[in-house]
Specification:
The protein is mainly alpha-helical and about 260 residues long. It is about 55% helix and about 5% strand.
């Protein structure tokens, strides 16, 4: 039943609550029916034009629940294998200290370095070896002490000359492009010197009287000094060859 109300010259219709709810329900159903009809017409129109996607499929995809990033399975990272520690190329401090000891600058040193015929080297090869030595201990006199000092200077000059000659031979191999063979020579030389260093018995008594005979002790120290210099030289050459650089530009001055 409709009731009429006059307000400010206008007539308003008041519907009962039940009729109001019915009108809203019918209005909603009509709107849904019109939307469905329009959607079917839109799909039919686009299918005729050759489109592959439909409104329904798009609506289904849009309304489909998307996986939550937090719920998606996480791939566990592969464990990284521990890196092997790099091999140190640094020589022991004792070897470096011996290799940097200064060489003498005496007349006998330079005579032996130049290969002067005034120096008789026939008896010197025995001092090119590690101790113990077979020569008998000399008497403890000032003359013998001076002879030992002269012998050390001569041996330093002799060994420096020999090292420069060996370095010059390796330089020729480098100039010829024999790099692979040269690196093998350097590697074997360093291993040989390291092995001889381990066999050194400085400070051990016995038949060689090292540790008792002053001359043998001094000559053993001279030998160790040159073994250390050779190890440092071989190591420097190997590093420069690995870097494809010429380690023999200053071959004479570097020994």
């Amino acid at each position: 039943m409709t009731r009429w109300l006059r307000c400010n010259g206008d007539i308003l219709s008041l519907l009962s609550p039940r009729s109001t709810r019915s009108s809203f329900v019918f209005a909603g159903r009509g709107k849904a029916a019109r939307q469905a009809q329009n959607a079917r017409a839109y799909v039919k129109h686009h299918r005729r034009r050759g489109t592959t996607k439909s409104v329904e499929s798009e609506s289904v995809l849009a309304s489909a629940p998307q996986p939550s990033p937090s719920l998606s399975p996480r791939l566990k990272p592969k464990p990284t294998p521990p890196k092997a520690p790099k091999k140190s190329n640094t020589l022991p401090s004792t070897i470096l200290a011996l290799a940097t000891l200064p060489l003498p600058n005496s007349f006998l040193f330079h005579q032996a370095l130049s290969g002067s015929p005034l120096i008789d080297e026939s008896d010197l090869p025995q001092w090119d070896k590690p101790p113990p030595y077979d020569s008998p201990p000399p008497p403890d006199t000032p003359d013998e002490a001076q002879f030992t000092r002269n012998l050390v200077d001569v041996m330093h000059g002799r060994r420096l000359r020999m090292e420069r000659e060996a370095c010059a031979r390796r330089a020729v191999m480098f100039e010829r492009g024999e790099i692979r063979a040269l690196r093998e020579v350097v590697r074997e030389g360093e291993e040989r010197v390291m092995g001889e260093w381990g066999l050194d018995k400085v400070g051990v008594g016995g038949d060689g009287c090292v540790g008792v005979c002053e001359r043998h002790r001094v000559m053993a120290e001279c030998y160790r000094q040159w073994q250390a210099r050779r190890m440092v030289k071989y190591r420097r050459e190997a590093e420069l060859l690995a870097a494809r650089q010429n380690p023999y530009l200053l071959c004479v001055d570097q020994v």
